Structure formats: structure tokens, C-alpha cells
């Protein structure tokens, strides 16, 4: 499958190079299939993590930086916005891409964002276009972050039927590791 420039686009949109961006930092609970949360008391998740949480990075001097509170979010690939739904930190945006295979069509899902006002269901997006900004609710225990999921979803499933629950419980939906599609310099740290 084609690789995305998502990481480079995210760094560019948010001028993280100005801070000397070197690599993303991931704690175990931020990675795909993690069974524990990475925030708060690291409680067990109700289902394994179905994506990747991007929270912070290190600079050339190995100083840790959080994401900007209103970080801009680029699209992984060209596609169409097919669903926008509320999540516990903002909205989840589902983009259907042009990649089809025997099992279905590739989707990328961005959690905890606020969609740009001029975009809506049916909007066509180009790879790297800003689709929204990370939303941060100070009442929630975890810091600002972007959740990214990538899945192959059977064409028989109507996008309007999609939800986080359906993605985690439907065997016919294949969840992919986002890092396989947008290779990026990263470090996994143990807690």
C-alpha cells in the first residue's frame, strides 16, 4: 500500500521544525492494540486501542514538547469526508480514500478534532490538506492529542453506520497500524 507523508505534513502545518522536531514520542498506551490507557491512572481500556495517539515529540536536544493545543490536522491521503461524529474530546472525522482492495476500502479516522467550518460530509480532500484542529477540553484528564486510526472497511458497510464501537467489534473491518502507512521518526518509551 502507498505510504503517506502525514508525519511531514503534520510537522509542516504546525511548524514543529521551528522547535527543532526530531521524533514523535509514544508511550505504550498510545500505540495500536494497547490494552492500557496512557493518561491518568493507566487503567485498562474497554477494548484494545484501535489506533495511534499523537501527544508529544522531542527536539534535537531531546527536550519533550506537547502538541500545540490547536494543532492543525492533515489528511492522510486524498479522499472524501463521509462521517463526522462527536467523541469525548471533540469530533471524529472519517475519510474514505481511493484505495480499494478485495476486503474493502481504506479509511482514516481522526479523533478529538474540530472540523474546519468550510468542510462537511461530502467534501473532497487532498493528501496534506488541513481538515481541522485538535480540540482540548480542560475538563478531560488527558492532554491535547490526536487519535489516528486506519482501517479497511467492507463496501457493504454504509459510512453512516460507522462508530467506534462498530470498528472495534466488527470482524470484517481490518484495523491497520498507522505507523505502517506513514513511517515517521519515533521513540517508544517505557513508563
How are the secondary structure elements laid out?
Layout: H1 6-13, E1 21-26, E2 52-54, E3 56-59, E4 64-66, E5 72-74, E6 79-87, E7 90-101, E8 104-115, E9 124-125, E10 130-134, E11 146-153, H2 164-169, E12 174-176, H3 178-181, E13 186-188
Parallel strand pairs: 1-13
Antiparallel strand pairs: 1-3, 2-11, 3-4, 5-10, 6-7, 6-9, 7-8, 8-10, 8-11, 11-12
Describe what this molecule looks like in 3D:
With 191 residues, the protein is mainly beta. 9% of the residues lie in helices and 38% in strands. The strands form 2 sheets. Strands 2, 5, 6, 7, 8, 9, 10, 11 and 12 form a 9-stranded antiparallel β-sheet that branches. A 4-stranded mixed β-sheet has the order 4-3-1-13, with no helix packed on it. Strand 6 (79-87) and strand 7 (90-101) form a beta hairpin.
Descriptive key words:
single chain; 191 residues; mainly beta; Glucose Permease (Domain IIA); nine-stranded antiparallel β-sheet; 13 strands
Distance from first to last alpha carbon? 33 Å
Write down the CATH class of the largest domain.
Answer: Mainly Beta
Could you report the average pLDDT, rounded to the nearest whole number? Answer: 89
Order of helices and strands: HEEEEEEEEEEEHEHE
Q: What is the overall number of helices?
A: 3
Proportion of residues in helical segments: under 10%
Task: Describe the sheet with the most strands.
Answer: 9 strands, antiparallel
Q: Structural class of the secondary elements? A: mainly beta
Q: Please give the domain count.
A: 2
Rg from alpha-carbon coordinates: 16 Å
The CATH topology of the largest domain is Glucose Permease (Domain IIA)
The CATH architecture term of the largest domain is: Distorted Sandwich
Stretches where pLDDT is under 50 for at least 5 consecutive residues are none
> What share of the residues does DSSP label as strand, in percent?
35-45%
CATH superfamily membership of the largest domain, which one?
Glucose Permease (Domain IIA)
What form results from the Cα inertia axes? globular
Care to count the β-strands? 13
Amino acid at each position: 500500500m502507498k505510504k503517506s507523508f502525514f508525519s511531514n505534513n503534520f510537522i509542516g502545518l504546525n511548524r514543529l521544525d521551528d522547535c527543532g522536531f526530531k521524533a514523535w514520542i509514544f508511550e505504550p498506551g498510545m500505540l495500536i492494540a494497547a490494552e492500557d490507557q496512557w493518561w491518568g491512572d493507566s487503567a485498562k481500556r474497554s477494548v484494545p486501542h484501535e489506533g495511534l495517539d499523537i501527544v508529544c515529540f522531542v527536539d534535537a536536544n531531546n527536550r519533550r514538547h506537547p502538541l500545540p493545543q490547536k494543532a492543525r490536522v492533515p489528511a492522510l491521503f486524498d479522499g472524501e469526508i463521509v462521517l463526522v461524529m462527536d467523541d469525548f474530546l471533540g469530533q471524529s472525522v472519517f475519510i474514505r480514500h481511493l484505495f480499494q482492495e478485495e476486503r474493502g476500502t481504506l479509511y482514516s479516522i481522526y479523533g478529538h478534532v474540530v472540523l474546519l467550518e468550510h468542510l462537511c460530509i461530502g467534501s473532497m480532500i487532498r493528501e496534506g490538506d488541513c481538515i481541522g484542529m485538535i480540540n482540548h477540553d480542560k475538563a478531560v484528564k488527558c492532554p491535547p492529542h490526536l487519535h489516528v486510526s486506519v482501517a479497511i472497511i467492507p463496501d457493504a458497510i454504509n459510512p453512516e453506520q460507522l462508530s467506534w464501537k462498530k470498528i472495534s467489534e466488527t470482524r470484517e473491518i481490518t484495523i491497520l497500524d498507522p505507523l505502517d502507512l506513514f513511517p515517521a521518526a519515533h521513540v517508544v518509551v517505557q513508563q
